[in-house]
Structure formats: structure tokens, C-alpha cells
Specification:
The structure holds two protein chains of two kinds. Chain A has a five-stranded antiparallel β-sheet, with helices on one face. In chain A, strand 4 and strand 5 form a beta hairpin. Chain A is α+β, with helices and mostly antiparallel strands. Chain A is rod-shaped, with a radius of gyration of 25 Å. In chain A, helix 2 runs antiparallel to helix 6 and helix 4 packs antiparallel against helix 5. The longest helix of chain A has 27 residues. By secondary structure, chain B is mainly alpha-helical. In chain B, helix 3 packs across helix 10, helix 4 packs across helix 9 and helix 13 packs antiparallel against helix 15. The chains are: A alpha+beta, B mainly alpha. At the A-B interface, helix 2, strand 2, helix 3, helix 4 and helix 5 of A face helix 1, helix 7, helix 8, helix 9 and helix 17 of B.
């Protein structure tokens, strides 16, 4: 598993490939992942299906969290209704039992309510999202519009930057940038013609 | 990788690129409001004013200002409540059930339908809240709050309380679902923002969204789970609304067919309202490439199906009343169809059962002006359905000494018209400040992506 903190640590160097074609992008991501280069993350304007597999991401554990939240809702509804209608002030209406199927609707509704809100809170926490947060991982202003970005950690000496540049360029990258260790916003453009490739830019 | 069928027509026409989608859908947000928007918005505000005025009168003088009496204790208020809740069913149905069925045509219309859901439920909530009379102490009547009135708890055996839980859950879960869907699009607007105010507010609500695939990966899981739990939720809401009637002992109300019949009616009326709004919106906002005739046709088919189901329920009710041998039940139905409110009953039958049958013809399903007219007919018909169920069942009770007629007062009419003001004010604000079409989802179904 790739350490996400690589990216969050601004002292690390990162290479970014910026793409415009989603099909070429996904192929390149799969190739980079196949080479074993540490992909920190990718940024896309819409969910590209299959990309998570190409990056080697695991399935999220959020469903487990959702289930636990749902159970909490169920327990809350059950104890609330039992306490009020059976223990604190038994309300006998028409001689019917104080506990019965009339509890089902509220049991269901509170389970759904707790699942939805719990899941949303877990999702925001896990994804480090908060109202008003300044997005730190914005490489290209168009990554939420029509461009796809791949971010690869390049600190590790085993990563051959030249080879990586070629791979990105041949895969269809329209721009390649490298972030040095001077902070989040310090990008240098990698001159893609420096690489020992013979492909003309035709993107 | 997307594997598109070569046989099916494109869902989004006009050979759009990703950037075209962003440009066209962000246009209304970034440009000055058009004249038609301004005129519509001002008109909605006028009706919103009427709502404020009539609710103010109700609060000041009590619900004696309404036309209710000792026999017809539920009149326009609950009619309008059920009418609006029904309209609020299409949004989550489109987003949740159609997502589970992998119907990709939902993607251009789900955002606006969800918004409609939220606004419609807001309008609906006004009626039971104000019907309680002293709304300022209403909290103790509808929520299990500890209080100093002795052990005065709410009654969990009552379907009215189930309804409180169902509607509030439905509203808040729909809001979460809608907001989650909006976050990536708000981030798109943020990254294009030129003014300081826009930068600040869209940044505030985008929650630092960058389009990270790790986040997308979780986001998809969250969407799927929310869709999964929203599906039974949608069905539960109108089921529970129908139980407000079905668990009573009023002839004409206590029938077991009510839950499925109400759910079908809710989907019917919800799609009716979605069609009313979208036929206009696609034209005014120039979104014909996104909301195509194909989308309208698909919705017309749903309207026809659910309209027929509702019609079947009307006839089944009659049969069951006749077959039951209960004379009160039989009288309630004969009185509906041939009593003093027969005009309402036959309006309902014509609008809901007969009118949608024209959608068997392809021309009717593919001609926008005709669809618009018919969607209005559906809205009217569904309002009459609730009026017929509530008022005709109540106005003649067991003892003829309690027989009365009911007609609304100006205050009740004002509240009803006012809720349209609230609904459209919210919808106009939504169409000005938020992307009306889900850009992120539409980008995923483009065929021409280069």
C-alpha cells in the first residue's frame, strides 16, 4: 500500500502527468502501476470506472461502518420506544399490548437515518473533507473540468525519472510537472522533449 | 472503460466534449440572470409573500380561519400535504431506484428531481405543522422530548407519529444524498470562479474536493449504499402516509390496498411534476442535448405505467367495497362516485386513469408541448385524488346529523398557492446558484470524449 502521507508531506518530490483522454489515462496509470512506481493518487473530473483497479486500490471498508451505524440506529429506536411506551409510562390503547408491530416503522426509519448520516460523516472524515477546507492537492485548475492528473512519488532512488517521463509522455500526457521540495505550489514544468523519446507531441 | 451499446441511442447528444459539458452547465451560474429567470423569480416571491401572509393569519387567529368543521377535520391542509409529499417521491426514486437498476438516463435529470424532492417535502411539512394549531409548542407533540407536563410522551403506536419520523428521515436523507452528489460539481464551479464571493462560497461548500481517485472510490461506495437504503425509504414514506388513513376506522380509508396504491400514485405525481419542470427548463436553459426527447419519453412511460396502476387501484377499491358486504363501506364509494363531490371523483378518474393512456402512442411521448399539457393534467388529477379520498370519506359520517359539505376559505387557498411560491422560489434559486445537471455523472456517459 502506498503511503498517502508522501503527498501530504510537502518536502517530498512528486511528478505529475496531466492527461486529456480518459482512455489513454487509464492505460498509462495501469502501466505505471505495473512498473511498480509509487502512485500517490490520481485526480479526475468524474469517476472513471476501472481506474481504482488500475491504481491497485482496495475496496473501501465504509460498508462495515454503515452497517454499524445502522445497528446503532436500530438500538436507539428500540430502546427509545421500549423506555417510553413500556417502562416509563405504559400507554394501553384499546387493550393492545404496549410492545408490538407498531414499533416497526420507527425502527426502520431511525436505522436508515443513522446509516445515512453516519456514513456521510465517516466518508468526510476518511477523505479529510471539511467545509471551507482549501484544496491542497490542486495541480491543475482543470482537474475538476476536463483533465486527469496522475501523481507519482519520485523520492525513492529506484524510480527512474527519465523512464517515468517517457512513459507518461508516450501514454498521452499533455503536460508533465514536477513538484520540488519548496512547498505545495512550487511546480516546475518538465520539458517533455528532453526525454529520449522520438514521439512527436500529437495530443 | 465504458462499453457502450451500438444499438442504443446516445444519452447526451450534440457530440459534447468534457469541457463543453462544464461550460454549458456552469453558464447559468456564471452569467447574469436572464429576463425570464428574473420575471419568474419575482412572481414566485409574490406567491411566497402570500404564503407568509396566510400563515400569519392562521397563527394570529388560529385554524378557525380554515374551512374545517367538526365532521371534515382534514380538508385542504392534509390534501395538500399528501399532494406535496407525493411530488417529492420522484427525485429519490430517480436517483436511488434507477441507480440500482443501472438506468443511465437518470443522470441528466436526477439533480433537478432531487432538488424538487427536497423543496416539495418542505412545502408538505408546512401543512401538518400549522394544522397542529399552536405550532410553538408542537415540538412536544411530535418529538419524544422530556418535558415538565407530567410524563407526556408521544405515542409510538400512532401512525401520525410514524409519519413524523418518516418525513423527517426522508427529508434529511434526501438532503444528504443531494448534497453529496453536488460536491464534485461545486468544486468544478469553484475552480472556474472569478469573483471573490463565488470563490469563497463554492470553496466553502466543496469541502476541499480535488477529484482524488481515492475519494471517488469511497464516494461511489457511499452513493451505492445511500441508494440502497433510500429505495426502501422512498417506499416506506408514502406507505406510512397511507397508514395515516388506512389504520383508521373511517369507511373509504381503512383498506389494505392503500400502501401500494399510494406509492404508485406518488411516483405518478412525482414524475408528472418532474416533466412539468423539465420540459420548461430544458427549453429555457437550452439543455435539449442533455435532457433529450429520449429522457422525456422514458418518463412518459413511467407516468403511463403508474397511472394505470393507480387506476387499477381505484377500480379494485370499488370491487372490494362491493364484495365486502359492509354497507358503510359501500355507501362511501357510491357517495364518492355519485354523491355531491362526484365532479371531483370523475376529474380524478379522467386525469389519472384515462389521460395517461395517450402515452401508448409514440407521438404523445415525444412531443414536448403535449407532454407538458399532460403533466399538468396529471398534477391536477393527483391533487383531486387526495381531495376525493379525504373529503368525500369524511363529509358523510355514520350519523346523518353529522353530514356537512366542505369548502376551503381564502386563507386555505392562499396557503396552497403560497406553497407553489415557496417551491418555485427555491427552484429558481437552485437553478441560479447550483449546476442543474450532474456534470460529473454526465461526463461519464459521453461517447465523444476526445
Amino acid at each position: 500500500m502506498i503511503d498517502r502521507n508522501l503527498y501530504l508531506d510537502k518536502n517530498k518530490t512528486v511528478m505529475f502527468g496531466i492527461f486529456e483522454n480518459p482512455d489513454m489515462f487509464i492505460d498509462t496509470v495501469a502501466k505505471v502501476h505495473g512498473k511498480g512506481a509509487p502512485i500517490i493518487d490520481c485526480y479526475t473530473p468524474y469517476p472513471i470506472h476501472g481506474l481504482e483497479k488500475a491504481m491497485g486500490l482496495k475496496r473501501s471498508l465504509l460498508p462495515v461502518g454503515a452497517f454499524i451505524c445502522g445497528c446503532l440506529g436500530f438500538i436507539t429506536a428500540a430502546s427509545l420506544q421500549l423506555y417510553i411506551m413500556h417502562f416509563d409510562w405504559p400507554m394501553v390503547i384499546g387493550g393492545k399490548p404496549t410492545v408490538g408491530v407498531s414499533f416497526v416503522p420507527v425502527l426502520f426509519e431511525l436505522s436508515v437515518l443513522f446509516t445515512a448520516f453516519g456514513l456521510a460523516i465517516l466518508f468526510f472524515t476518511r477523505s479529510k473533507m471539511l467545509h471551507g477546507k482549501i484544496p491542497t492537492e490542486r495541480v491543475d485548475m482543470r482537474q475538476t473540468d476536463d483533465r486527469m492528473v496522475i501523481a507519482i512519488a519520485t523520492d525513492n532512488p529506484s524510480v527512474d525519472k527519465n523512464e517515468l517521463t517517457n512513459m507518461l509522455f508516450n501514454g498521452g500526457a499533455v503536460e508533465i510537472k514536477e513538484r520540488t521540495n519548496n512547498g505545495y505550489d512550487d511546480f516546475t514544468d518538465v520539458n517533455i522533449n528532453k526525454g529520449n523519446n522520438h514521439v512527436t507531441a500529437n495530443h | 472503460m465504458i462499453h457502450d451499446s451500438v444499438i442504443r441511442p446516445q444519452l447526451v447528444t450534440g457530440d459534447k466534449t468534457l469541457h463543453d459539458v462544464t461550460n454549458e452547465i456552469c453558464r447559468p451560474i456564471e452569467n447574469k440572470p436572464s429576463t425570464s429567470w428574473t420575471v419568474g423569480f419575482i412572481l414566485s416571491l409574490v406567491f411566497l409573500g402570500i404564503l407568509g401572509l396566510t400563515l400569519g393569519i392562521t397563527l394570529a387567529y388560529g385554524i378557525g380561519t380554515w374551512g374545517l368543521n367538526k365532521t371534515v377535520q382534514w380538508g385542504w391542509d392534509i390534501t395538500n400535504f399528501v399532494f406535496w409529499v407525493g411530488i417529492g417521491h420522484a427525485g429519490t426514486l430517480i436517483s436511488a431506484i434507477l441507480l440500482l437498476f443501472r438506468q443511465k438516463w437518470r443522470m441528466s435529470i436526477n439533480r433537478s428531481a432531487e432538488a424538487m424532492t427536497i423543496f416539495a417535502v418542505m412545502c408538505a411539512a408546512i401543512f401538518p405543522l400549522f394544522h397542529m394549531g399552536r405550532i410553538w409548542v408542537g415540538g412536544y407533540w411530535v418529538l419524544p422530548l422530556p418535558n415538565a407536563f407530567g410524563s407526556l410522551w408521544v405515542n409510538f403506536h400512532s401512525p401520525l407519529l410514524w409519519d413524523v419520523f418518516a418525513i423527517t428521515t426522508y427529508f434529511s436523507v434526501s438532503l444528504v444524498f443531494w448534497y453529496l452528489g453536488l460536491i464534485p460539481d461545486i468544486a468544478t464551479v469553484r475552480d472556474r470562479a472569478k469573483t471573490e464571493g463565488r470563490k469563497f462560497w463554492y470553496n466553502f461548500f466543496s469541502m476541499g474536493w480535488t477529484g482524488s481517485v481515492r475519494t471517488w472510490n469511497r464516494y461511489e461506495v457511499v452513493s451505492l449504499i445511500l441508494a440502497g437504503i433510500s429505495t426502501p425509504l422512498v417506499l416506506s414514506v408514502h406507505t406510512i402516509v397511507s397508514m395515516d388513513f388506512a389504520t383508521s376506522v373511517v369507511p373509504g380509508w381503512h383498506t389494505t390496498i392503500f400502501p401500494p396504491y399510494f406509492v404508485a400514485g406518488a411516483i405518478f405525481s412525482g414524475f408528472g411534476m418532474v416533466l412539468t419542470l423539465l420540459v420548461i427548463a430544458r427549453k429555457v436553459m437550452n439543455y435539449q442535448d442533455y435532457i433529450t426527447i429520449g429522457h422525456l419519453e422514458a418518463m412518459c412511460k413511467v407516468v403511463m405505467l403508474t397511472g394505470t396502476m393507480v387506476g387499477l387501484a381505484y377500480i379494485t377499491e370499488f370491487f372490494v367495497a362491493a364484495y365486502s358486504g359492509v354497507e358503510y363501506e359501500q355507501y362511501a364509494f357510491v357517495n364518492r362516485a355519485f354523491g355531491p363531490y362526484a365532479w371531483a371523483y370523475w376529474s380524478m378518474m379522467t386525469c389519472n386513469l384515462i389521460a395517461p393512456q395517450v402515452f401508448w402512442f409514440k407521438w404523445a411521448r415525444t412531443t414536448p408541448w403535449f407532454i407538458f399539457m399532460l403533466s399538468i393534467v396529471v398534477n391536477v388529477g393527483m391533487w383531486f385524488e387526495r381531495f376525493v379520498i379525504i373529503v368525500t370519506s369524511l363529509h358523510r359520517e355514520y350519523l346523518p346529523s353529522g353530514w356537512v359539505m366542505y369548502s376551503p376559505t381564502l386563507v386555505e387557498i392562499g396557503i396552497f398557492l403560497g406553497t407553489f411560491g415557496l417551491f418555485f422560489t427555491c427552484f429558481f434559486l437552485f437553478s441560479k446558484f447550483l449546476p442543474v445537471i450532474n456534470m460529473a455523472e454526465v461526463k461519464g456517459i459521453l461517447k465523444n470524449r476526445e
